[in-house]
Design brief:
Layout: H1 2-23, H2 28-36, H3 42-51, H4 56-60, E1 75-76, H5 91-108, H6 117-138, H7 147-154, H8 163-173, H9 185-188, H10 191-210, H11 216-236, E2 243-248, E3 254-260, H12 262-270, E4 279-283, E5 292-296, E6 308-312, H13 315-327, E7 332-336, E8 342-343, E9 348-349, H14 356-360, H15 368-373, E10 381-390, E11 396-402, E12 414-418, H16 419-425, E13 426-432, H17 438-441, E14 449-451
Length: 462
């Protein structure tokens, strides 16, 4: 009798599902079935009561993992000072410049040194405005409803970015020390001025599309950029074209006092280092074929610069390149999905930091490929990769990055990640070519697969 009753319930369930497929909505019978599926014991009730008054992340914090992770690293790049991007999306710029300053500090035995983020950010915003306006001109023949045009008007300007922006901007505009063009309120709080400029850009975009004469948009674009320049100057200041700077060693002794242009300053202290040609961005994107080169359209900061081009490699090959660089005391541009399993108080990125499954009573089984495909994970933040801890066999146990959230955040301004977390949530690292094997470099000779602007991998790091 019980068996027949169970069979009857099953048939009723199938009938409910069949009705559901016809309408697509939640029927009264389906709702009844869903409600009946929930049963609550004392543990369920305790969890529900706790969640009513407490943040989920607090409740899910794994008490078995609260002890501070070992902070000793077998290999660590020499760096000094922690930067703070504050309320801005400029992590990509801080990261790129932090890689350069670590090199200069080490080579010239300096104390703390910081390059001006304001200086390059000024030109980043000006270049991105030109990129948008020129892209509008280039796509005038397409309808407003075209997906490419729609994407442009949805994304006229952003303060986020990636390494290609660093390389193009530095090689074009040089660098200056922080004291030459210091931070101000607007650089540390970019939202309001960015929104105003985006409003003007959308207005300008419509005007450019209305022009019938092919020659008119170019002259009109120049006039528009003059107004954008004025807005940027009022917000961030006037970028220096020449300045005097005194270099001191770590004891404070004056080594030299000279007058520079931003370009001559870079030339003197970094010589022939070409950020556009000497570095390769490698990616671990399990949704696409490995050992292939990919390029994303309009994923650049400078119109006449480079789109973001990356070589997709298996995670073990990415690790090997990173380890080689760190062993040679060379920091790297690194990006990841920083919000996943971050325990801010400890400054650790560890998949064991939180136990959401026990708290919610459900499993979260998706792997890295599935998370990327469904937009559940992607690169969101750039930091400077500076350390790795290797076991006796040479395998990585943990990694450390220098962050740009201030010295009081994380562990002394840094974040420590387990190797398991690195595999799941690391996406990009930029490596000097000298650390890349010849057979891997040869892969760069292939023609890149062009991806559209709206590809999931186009995501500015902030």
């Amino acid at each position: 009798m019980k068996r027949l009753f169970t069979l009857a319930l099953a048939l009723m369930s199938v009938g409910t599902l069949s009705a559901q497929q016809d309408t697509g909505g939640i029927s009264e019978a389906m709702l009844k079935e869903i409600r009946a599926s929930y049963t609550e014991d004392a543990a369920d009730r305790a969890a529900r009561n706790a969640m009513a008054q407490t943040p989920i992340a607090t409740l899910a914090t794994n008490s078995d993992n609260l002890a501070m992770i070992d902070t000793n690293f077998s290999h660590r790049v020499k760096t000094k000072g922690i930067t703070d991007q504050q309320q801005s999306g400029r992590c990509w710029l801080f990261t790129g410049l932090n890689v350069l300053r670590a090199q200069m500090i080490e080579e010239y035995d300096l104390g703390e040194l910081t390059f001006s983020h304001n200086y390059l950010f000024f030109y980043d915003q000006l270049e991105k405005c030109n990129l948008f306006l020129q892209a509008v001109i280039d796509t005038k023949h397409l309808k407003m409803e075209d997906r490419q045009v729609e994407w442009l008007f949805k994304n006229p300007l952003n303060d986020g970015g990636q390494f290609t922006g660093v390389s193009n901007l530095v090689m074009k505009y040089g660098v200056v020390p922080a004291e030459v063009m210091p931070e101000n309120y607007q650089t540390n709080n970019t939202t309001q001025i960015s929104n105003l400029i985006k409003l003007k850009l959308r207005e300008y975009g419509l005007k450019l599309r209305e022009q019938k004469d092919r020659r008119a948009p170019v002259a009109l674009k120049t006039e528009m950029l003059k107004e954008i320049y004025q807005m940027l100057v009022r917000a961030y200041g006037v970028p220096p074209t020449e300045f005097e700077w005194t270099m001191r060693d770590k004891s404070g002794k004056v080594l030299s006092t000279k007058t520079y242009t931003p370009q001559s300053f870079y030339k003197e202290y970094f010589g022939e280092l070409n950020l556009e040609k000497d570095f390769v961005m490698v990616m671990n994107d399990p949704t696409r074929e490995y050992h292939k080169v990919y390029e994303i359209e309009y994923d650049r900061h400078v119109y006449d610069g480079n789109n973001w081009v990356y070589l997709n490699l298996p995670i073990d090959e990415v690790k090997a390149l990173a380890i080689a660089s760190i062993k040679d005391n060379t920091a790297m541009y690194f990006s990841c999905d920083v919000g996943k399993f971050l325990l801010s108080k400890k400054g650790t990125l560890d998949i064991a930091n939180f136990d959401y499954e026990s708290l919610m009573g459900v499993e979260f089984p998706m792997n890295k490929e599935q998370r990327v495909r469904t937009f559940a994970s992607g690169s969101s933040h750039a930091m400077t990769l500076i350390a790795v801890d290797l076991d006796e066999a040479g395998n990585a146990k943990k990694w450390m990055v220098e962050n740009s959230w201030g010295a009081k955040s994380g562990w002394r301004g840094n974040l420590i990640m387990t190797d398991e977390w690195f595999e799941e949530y690391m996406f990009r690292v930029v490596v000097n070519k000298k650390y890349i094997p010849a057979e891997t470099l040869k892969l760069l000779e292939q023609k890149p697969v062009m991806l559209p602007s709206w590809d999931p991998m186009f995501q500015y790091e902030e």
